[in-house]
């Protein structure tokens, strides 16, 4: 099995590793770096539970190879906290009930982070569109949309 040396930045820290050519980014993050916030869901790119930011853009880590992240910056849900405390978006999800079982929440948080970076004051329709690549089986989405709007009102995107 061929391996490749990669160097990348994960949550602000430089990481160097040897990875098999076919190692999925989701497996690298979870199994090699022990960042278990990135969830394995459908493993077909449908559910969005594995969403991370790659150079500030949302990607489904179950569809990306670890070697494709060479020289790039990854942010996982663990990288959103500030000083060990939940950031404004994470707090909004807690306050507005934007999570139930929590399995999909990391993916929604990553997609919401990217959305608010692009559009700090989205409408409800813009939030729904921005999160359309993520699935939740528990909340019916209303509380998730409300959470993102609440974070936007609190100035998360500014």
Explained architecture:
This protein is α+β, with helices and mostly antiparallel strands. The chain has two domains: 3-79, Ubiquitin-like (UB roll) (Roll), CATH 3.10.20; 88-153, [2Fe-2S]-binding domain (DNA polymerase, domain 1, Orthogonal Bundle), CATH 1.10.150. It is 32% helix and 17% strand. The chain has five helices and five strands. The chain has helices spanning 25-32, 88-96, 105-118, 124-130, 142-153, and strands at 3-10, 13-20, 51-54, 57-60, 73-75. It has a five-stranded mixed beta sheet, with helices on one face. Strand 1 (3-10) and strand 2 form a beta hairpin. Helix 2 (88-96) crosses helix 5. The longest helix is centred in the last third of the chain and has 14 residues, at 105-118. The chain starts with a strand and ends in a 5-residue tail after the last helix.
CATH homologous superfamily heading of the largest domain: Beta-grasp domain
- Count of runs of 4 or more consecutive helical residues: 5
Structural class: alpha+beta
Mean pLDDT: 94
| Helix-strand sequence | EEHEEEHHHH
Largest beta sheet, briefly?
Answer: 5 strands, mixed
The CATH topology of the largest domain corresponds to Ubiquitin-like (UB roll)
End-to-end Cα distance: 46 Å
Number of strands: 5
- Radius of gyration using CA atoms only: 15 Å
The helix fraction, in percent, is 25-40%
CATH architecture of the largest domain: Roll
Uncertain runs: none
Whole-number tally of structural domains: 2
Quaternary structure type: single chain
Using the coordinates above, name the CATH class of the largest domain.
Alpha Beta
- What amount of the residues lies in strands? 15-25%
Order of the strands making up the biggest sheet: 2-1-5-3-4
């Amino acid at each position: 099995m061929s391996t490749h040396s990669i160097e990348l930045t994960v949550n602000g820290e430089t990481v160097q590793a040897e990875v098999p050519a076919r190692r999925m980014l989701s497996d690298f993050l979870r199994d090699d770096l022990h960042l278990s916030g990135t969830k394995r869901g459908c493993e077909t790119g449908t559910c969005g539970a594995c969403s991370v930011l790659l150079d500030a853009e949302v990607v489904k880590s179950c569809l990306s190879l670890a070697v494709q992240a060479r020289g790039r910056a990854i942010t996982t849900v663990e990288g959103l906290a500030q000083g060990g405390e939940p950031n404004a978006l994470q707090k909004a999800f807690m306050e507005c009930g934007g999570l139930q079982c929590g399995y999909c929440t990391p993916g929604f948080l990553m997609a919401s982070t990217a959305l608010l970076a692009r559009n700090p004051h989205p409408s409800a329709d813009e939030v729904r569109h921005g999160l359309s690549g993520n699935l939740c089986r528990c909340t019916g989405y209303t509380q998730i949309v409300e959470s993102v709007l609440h974070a936007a009102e609190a100035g998360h995107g500014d």
